[in-house]
């Protein structure tokens, strides 16, 4: 049981790579890391953005959440026209 607690404590004191990235670069960096580019079909990008947004919500990352929602809306607008 002690090992498990140590693991939890270690995770609490670990910095995320996103701690070193400016807020406006979090989403573009995340998308690049998983291979999403301008050539990626909109429906694939949309699905990935939904998942990133869900993680942002769970982590309380409002800046990333807003960036995801903005990009999702722009994809929806493109698809509607």
Short structural summary:
This protein has 81 residues and is mostly helical. It is 73% helix and 0% strand.
- Extract low-pLDDT stretches: none
Radius of gyration: 16 Å
State the secondary-structure class. mainly alpha
Write the H/E string, N to C.
Answer: HHHH
Mean pLDDT across every amino acid position:
82
User: Portion of residues in helices?
Assistant: over 70%
Q: How would you sum up the major sheet? A: none
Q: Which percent range describes the beta-strand content? A: under 5%
Give the count of structural domains. Answer: 1
Total strand segments = 0
Number of helices: 4
So what's the overall shape? globular
Q: Span from first to last CA? A: 57 Å
Blueprint (SSEs and pairs):
Layout: H1 2-12, H2 23-33, H3 42-59, H4 62-80
Describe this structure in words.
- It is a single chain.
- By secondary structure, this protein is mainly α.
- The protein has one domain.
- Helix content is 73%, strand content 0%.
- The protein contains four helices and no strands.
- The longest helix is centred in the C-terminal third of the chain and has 19 residues.
- The protein is globular.
List keywords for this structure.
mainly alpha, 4 helices, globular
């Amino acid at each position: 049981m002690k090992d498990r607690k140590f693991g939890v404590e270690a995770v609490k004191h670990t910095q995320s790579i996103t701690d070193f990235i400016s807020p406006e670069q979090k989403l573009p960096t995340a998308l690049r890391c998983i291979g999403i580019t301008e050539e990626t079909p909109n429906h694939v990008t949309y699905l990935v953005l939904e998942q990133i947004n869900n993680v942002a919500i769970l982590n309380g990352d409002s800046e990333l959440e807003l960036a995801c929602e903005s990009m999702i809306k722009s994809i929806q607008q493109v698809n509607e026209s």
